[in-house]
Each structure stands twice: as C-alpha cells, then as structure tokens.
Design brief:
Rossmann fold, globular, 270 residues, four-stranded parallel sheet, binds D-glutamic acid, six-stranded parallel sheet, alpha/beta
Length: 270
C-alpha cells in the first residue's frame, strides 16, 4: 500500500516533490496520464472518464488514498467522483481547497461563514477547462467575501511543458500575464492553478513583479496531506514501494521528469 499521486502528465511532479520532502517515510505511487495530456482542453465528461480510469489503476497498486495533483481533474471530476463513484474505504483528495484555505487564512475544515480577507484582487492562472468550471470562484465564495478574481485561461502552456519546449512556455506565460494585466492591472496575489505552472514559477513572478504574492500548490498540498495523515494514519498502509507509472512513452517521460526534478526518475508503462 502507498499513497497515490495523479496528474494528466508531468505537472503533478511538483506536488510529488513536495509531499516526498514533507513525508519522507511515506511511499508514493505517481501516475501520469501523459498519453492523454493535456486535460485542460477536454470537456468535463472526458476528464471524468480519464481520471476515474487512472485512479482505479492506483487502487490496483494498493493506494487507498489518492491525491488528484491536477486542478483540471479536481475542478471537472472530483465532485462527481465523490458523489457516486469512490468506495467507502477509499479517499480521493483534490488540490483546490488547501490552496483556497491558505489564501483565506483558514485552518483545515474551518466551515465558518465567509468573511473578509486581506487580499482583494486575485489573479487566477489555470487551464481553459479549470477556468470554465468556475470551481475556484465557487470554493472561494464559501470562505471569503469581497475578493475580486480575474481568471486567465493559459492555453498552450501545458503542451509546451509536456513537449519540453521551455522557451515557448516562457513566452506563453508572459503573454498570458499581459492579457491578465489588461483585465486587472494591479493584482495583489496570483494563484498558479495548474500543477504544471510551478515549473514556470520564475517566469510568472518576473512578469507579475516582485510585489505580487504568487501562491503555488505544492507546499500547501504537502502540509495539508501531512495533517490529513496525522488524523487518518491507516490511509498510508504498510507498503514500502514508490514508483512512477505513465500511459505515455516511459523513456521520454523519464527524461523530462529527470530534467524537471533534477534527480533520476524512472517511469514504467502503466
Ligand atoms: N496539471 C494539470 C492541472 O493542474 C493538468 C493540465 C492539463 O493536462 O491540461 O490542471
């Protein structure tokens, strides 16, 4: 048994890196659905079908707890999965809520009524499908009032990262930040609402300026998982095997992952 970490491709490695550092004794099984990335341009039904297939595969690996390290899946599929698909002895956690709790300075599970928070103008950068779902605004509205969110759908960035074309990814990030600035000239905070984007964190920060606080999910999700496992220690299980699975070309995905994480990562075919 181990904890599963799922993403459409390489982006979830940013979360995997953080959870591995925070919880070095926990074995993690990573599943990248690289053959079907990007998810961000797919419709909700498609994302649901791909995500449930991947999570089933992680259950077959003995992971009773799976982190959807993918905002697109968390936004488009998680609620439907929780309503009717997940067996009672298993759990699937998304990456959205921990981020919003951090932004709104709430502790886990604080369900008190929405209240005013320090930040008023927030830029959200995410995939087209996450932006279209409005899931971020919905979750935020449960917790905060008076926050103006301007969302920018960042078409093309995930494809460029998956292809290893970081020059194109950098240029696209800058043009999406320009587009955001035309709608919201002075954001105080920015959310990187796609787990691929921390790989471009420097490009976002330099285009936004040092005065903008950029929230990215990896460390926030790691802290939230540590807290969850303290409360539900049985969900870790007893296994000791970490591994990396992909639906894509294992050699190609391993080489990109090694480049991003700056340590040898070896994927096997899912
Ligand atoms: N990294 C994922 C996310 O957080 C998915 C990106 C994609 O496949 O389009 O949204």
């Amino acid at each position: 048994m181990a904890v599963g970490v799922f993403d459409s491709g390489l982006g979830g490695l940013t979360v995997l890196n953080a959870v591995t550092k925070r919880l070095p004794d926990v074995p993690f099984v990573y599943f990248g659905d690289n053959a079907h990335a990007p998810y961000g341009v797919r419709d909700a039904n498609d994302v649901y079908n791909l995500t449930t297939a991947a999570v089933s595969r992680l259950w077959d690996e003995g992971c009773n707890l799976v982190i959807l390290a993918c905002n697109t899946a968390s936004a488009a599929a998680l609620r439907r999965m929780q309503e009717s698909w997940i067996p009672t002895d298993k759990r699937v956690l998304g990456v959205f809520v921990p981020l919003i709790e951090a932004l709104t300075e709430r502790n886990w599970g604080d369900n008190s009524p929405p209240r005013e928070v320090a930040v008023k103008n927030v830029a959200l950068f995410a995939t087209p499908s996450t932006v279209a779902s409005r899931a971020f605004q919905r979750e935020l509205a449960f917790r905060a009032i008076g926050v103006d969110v301007e969302a920018q759908a960042c078409g093309g960035v995930v494809d460029a990262i998956e292809d290893g074309d970081m020059i194109l990814a950098d240029a696209l990030v800058r043009s999406h930040v320009d587009a955001l600035h035309r709608k919201m000239p002075n954001p105080e905070a920015a959310i990187l609402g796609c787990t691929h984007y921390p790989l471009m964190a420097d490009a976002f920060q330099s285009a936004l300026g040092d005065h903008v606080k950029v929230y990215s999910q990896a460390d926030i999700v790691a802290e939230s998982l540590a807290d969850y496992l303290t409360r539900h220690p049985k969900m870790i299980g007893t296994g000791i095997t970490s591994k990396f699975l992909t639906t894509g070309d294992a050699a190609r995905v391993s080489s990109r992952a090694t480049q991003f994480l700056k340590r040898q990562i070896t994927f096997e075919k899912a």
